[in-house]
Write a structure and sequence with these properties.
Length: 137
């Protein structure tokens, strides 16, 4: 086993071409949802205000890395915004659909930058690899 393989297994992070593909997938989601929002005719003020709203989940790290990771991952998983989008289509609610598109665009943007779902070891440990400084909170 190589040192890289051992480090990957220890952190659970994806590497190599698969990591690049997942980041490109995030970029595609960001671009796709932003274009869909533009075609939809959504307010850009609403987009700007809500785009960084999922990052308020960072505040959960004040209670510790395990709780922080759980809340961050809940806010940065595809599950809730996809459920919201489905609800928006089912109820024909433009506001619900707009929020879902913005939320998905945010998640895509984060993934494109390498901010993956978090492990309880700390904010810097993600499924897309280590981010930040060697010591993380």
């Amino acid at each position: 086993m190589t040192e890289t393989t051992t480090a990957t297994e220890a952190t659970g992070a994806v590497t190599g071409g698969l990591r690049i593909m997942l980041r490109l997938e995030g970029l595609t989601l960001f671009i796709g949802m932003t274009l869909l929002y533009a075609v939809w005719g959504g307010s850009w003020w609403v987009y700007v205000i809500l785009f960084f709203a999922p990052d308020l989940s960072f505040l959960a790290y004040l209670s510790g890395p395990k709780f922080g990771a759980m809340i961050y991952n809940a806010a940065h998983s595809y599950m809730a915004p996809m459920a919201l989008m489905t609800t928006g289509f089912a109820t024909a609610s433009p506001l619900t659909l707009s929020i879902a598109m913005i939320w998905l665009a945010h998640i895509g943007f984060d993934r494109a930058l390498g901010y993956g779902l978090k492990y309880s070891a700390g904010f810097g440990f993600t499924h897309l690899g280590r981010i930040g400084k060697a010591t993380s909170f």
